[in-house]
Amino acid sequence: MSNDDSLEERVQMLADLVGIPIDAADLPEVANRFASLMQELDRLRDLDLEGIEPVSIFPDPKDD
Q1: Which of these, 16, 18, 19, 21, is most buried using a 10 Å CB contact count?
Q2: What's the Cα-to-Cα distance from 32 to each of 14, 15, 27, 57, rounded to whole Å?
Q3: Average pLDDT of 20-29?
Q4: pTM: predicted TM-score of the whole model, two decimal places
């Protein structure tokens, strides 16, 4: 079993858990995109966020 097969199995398992149907023909592309996304998210771990205050993206309805 190659790493690609293992990744595809994990992606299929995650999709099944959240109820997202993935056609077998689409699975290699979905797995590839998922891997790329995870690589980009890993890069965020390297950012120095010391002293950066969180920002609310969604307005608080109580403030209206």
Answers
A1: 16
A2: 14, 14, 8, 29
A3: 96
A4: 0.67
Model pLDDT, residue 40:
94
- Picking from 61, 64, 44, 60, the residue whose alpha carbon sits closest to that of residue 52 is 44
How many Cβ atoms from other residues are within 10 Å of residue 23's Cβ? 7
Q: Do residues 15 and 21 make contact, with C-beta atoms less than 8 angstroms apart?
A: yes
Domain boundaries, the chain: 1-39
C-alpha 39/C-alpha 29 separation (Å) is 15
Q: How many CB atoms are located within 10 Å of the residue 8 CB? A: 21
Q: Quote the pLDDT of residue 63.
A: 64
Residue 49: what residue type? L
Rounded Cα distance between 64 and 17, Å, is 38
